[in-house]
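Notebook B, p. 112. Complex prediction, attempt 2.
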Amino acid sequence: MSAAGRTHATRWGVVNVVVVLYALFPVWWIAALSFKDPGTLTDGDYIPRKWTWENYRGIFETSEFTRALVNSIGIALIATTIAVALGTMAAYAVARLRFPGKQVLIGMSLLIAMFPPISLVSPLFDIERSIGVFDTWLGLIIPYMTFSLPLAIYTLSAFFREIPWDLEKAAKVDGATPAQAFRMVIVPLAAPGVFTTAILVFIFCWNDFLFAISLTSTESARTVPAAIAFFTGSSQFQQPTGSIAAAAVVITVPIVVFVLLFQRRIVAGLTSGAVKG
Amino acid sequence: MAEIVLEGVTKRFPDGSVAVKDVDLAIADGEFVILVGPSGCGKSTTLNMIAGLEDITEGTLRIDDRVVNDLAPKERDIAMVFQSYALYPHMSVRENMGFPLRLAKVDKATVDRKVEEAARVLDLTGFLDRKPAHLSGGQRQRVAMGRAIVRDPKAFLMDEPLSNLDAKLRVQMRTQISRLQRSLGTTTVYVTHDQVEAMTLGDRVVVMRQGVIQQVGTPTELYDMPRNLFVAGFIGSPAMNFVNASLSGGLLRTPLGDLPLDDRMRGALERRDAPREVILGLRPEAFEDASLARGTGGPVVTATVDVLESLGSDAYVYFGAEGGPATSAELEELATDSGRRDTGAAAQIVARLDAATRAREGAPVELRVDLGKAHVFDPSTGVNLTRPDGTAGP
Amino acid sequence: MSTAAGPADTRPPGGAGPGRRTKGRAALSAGARQERRLGWLLCAPAVLVMVAVTAYPIGYAVYLSLQRYDLRFPARAEFVGLSNYGAVLSSPYWWDAFWVTLFLTVVSVAIELVLGMGLALVMHRTLFWRGTVRTAVLIPYGIVTVVAAFSWQYAWTPELGYLAELLPSGEAPLTEQWPALWLIVLAEVWKTTPFMALLLLAGLALVPEETLKAAMVDGATAWQRFTQVVLPLMKPAILVALLFRTLDAFRIFDNIYVLTSGAHGTGSLSILGYNNLFTALNLGIGSAISVLIFLCVGIIAFTFVKLFGAAAPGAEVGR
């Protein structure tokens, strides 16, 4: 490599390192906090001087956190399943069939995706209390539909539009029944898009905070983000910092795993349809 | 192997537009028939209707004397090669080619044997375990062909199968398809917009325009005896030259000069009650350098050479004609389709001369016109007035 | 290609021939009708759910906003017309929150655009580690906002955080309005710049390499290529990214809730709505706030689409 090439490479190397540090630093910092013992918690170091699992043991001993973790996982999974199932049907229709009202559907889901959730909190608070789903899993799954369903329809229809539907024709000419064409050709091609969408929807549900603190009042449906926020007041004598940090790391792990495994697909899903090729 | 018969086949889309109009066509067993025409002429729709991928609005389609209008593609026993090849990206070459057989519940050993056999014919043996993404364009095309031939279907339908290949490969594949079809003897319907492909491949060529069949015939028939302006202008490269002309006395007055009618033309024109104003069509090879004068007879015109293209075997001479190009709806459409309208080349006349010509750019040249190869068209209907009677139509 | 099946296909078949021929025609219409019915059928569940979870609550919010409805005295609910709106719009709390929200939105989106563009260029052009960089950049976006907010809060808490140590001792930036607002912007920018960058990256990928080469041959400098070729070609992508992010930033809640709880003049409209509901327990006023925020978002979206011609992405869906 020439000298100019080397400086070029070095420059990009520096830029890349800066970007990676920018992205990871706050994450690293809270992870470091979570491994500090109460004595060194306030030292402000980026690397714990003494590593300890104490904070993790602490949160997993309280039902406050474990229950919230179960709630988070359960609610996010159910909401994702419903949104992806309904979204797949609608997105297939949008990408594949001719019918009037298609544009309205797209416009509507986009509009709903832009809804300020706070606008829904007040009425939902009242509605859910009167029909008895306040502070239940269902009480959170319902509002999660407001963002997860449009997201699913939107992302999936972008993925489905990429599928070469000619293949369906080819399969039919090759002697497949419509059901065979769907199962042997379309499903294998659509599966990655559905899977990616499910991950995205899950991340969005996992991330929700406003609905979770507004529409729950006890441990029975409170998700981790809301529970973390309430750690603060749990004990007057002990700072909850370590517990919060540990809980934060626990709910960050799945996201990091998703991102590491499916980076390329998540990027495709996030940007799909937003920019027309 | 099969005979395919279309009777009064029409395709009307839900929005009311008619893509194919009252098509009658009988394709004999083992025949290689080309559907050709500019984009939007209905050729692909016709093919899709034969395949069963589109409903037939009106008319009947018979394969081997059996009406198949309402049969699903799977029940028609036809194979199709798509323009995009439509290879299944998640299957290997072997799986792609064996797919129709597996669907037909053929036992595994037979599938393997047939796939390998087809792969050998198509020179794909080394690629059987690759995914389509790892193949070149030409290889993908051959896999698509392979998927069609393993089934030994009643007919092959091919929808512009070569148009995604580069020019050189296209010529090679063209020969290969031709050879393959002949050795298999399978009835084939082949759609293309490329008239060179149409002329070189087909036993018979069907020229379509705006959903209507313009003419059906062997390549030579279409070339020598076009039924109308559209066919005349569409078939042949470089295209036929068209100039406005008027009939007066025994003369054809054209921007090139006055040309005396010969007996053949006079007879035909009288019989068909030709109007005064007509369009004269001359293929580039209807001209000849008068100074090399091998031919005999025929009027001589003088023109100033704009551009001379020497191809070694021949020389193309371009010159302008006073009075501008002939116009008609059909010629407009052709010019738009071929892009000639954009370049303004329609106003030029091209003559194919012997390479020995001494014509020079900017200098006048004397050209002998072979009126035996001239056509006279009615500008309002586009009908070729000088086409010999008794030739099969349409 | 337009795919919308117009009203034409309901027209009776014109000039249908005798028996055999009309049969085919009828079958086609049936096919088209069937396709249409299937389309509606497949969309119906999603549409019903979306209407149930958004349109109905919003309608209910409008109804509530016209009532005097205090959760402490539910029996005394009565219709009061627009007076809740009057109360909200004449209140300094609303306007303080409004300006704070506007400030946070404009400033953070502006910074995100610049940073996001830089990040997108890095991801687009970098010679190596492309995958690593993209993965790293996705992490802030994927992380639960509350987690990130806590990380920032601890970083700026005196006696605890690494960033607070950099400040003169005794400074507690999260307890003063302007420093706190800027820290909220920082947290917001950190979290959402990656999303902006990814949308812009997708736009960048659409700029043909050959066009850039042509510009280079034509003598354009790198900066000229960027401003005169890349940016204009990316305009649709930029507008979409801005629209998404502006609407998203306008509903900012999580970061503020964790960082300052809206104290010291840092409360956004969403915080105001939340506090009103759960501390004042006044559903009538709370609903009026909800409706007003909804209107603000509507106005922003409308402005983007009308003024800048931001095409609603996916609007021209077709086959």
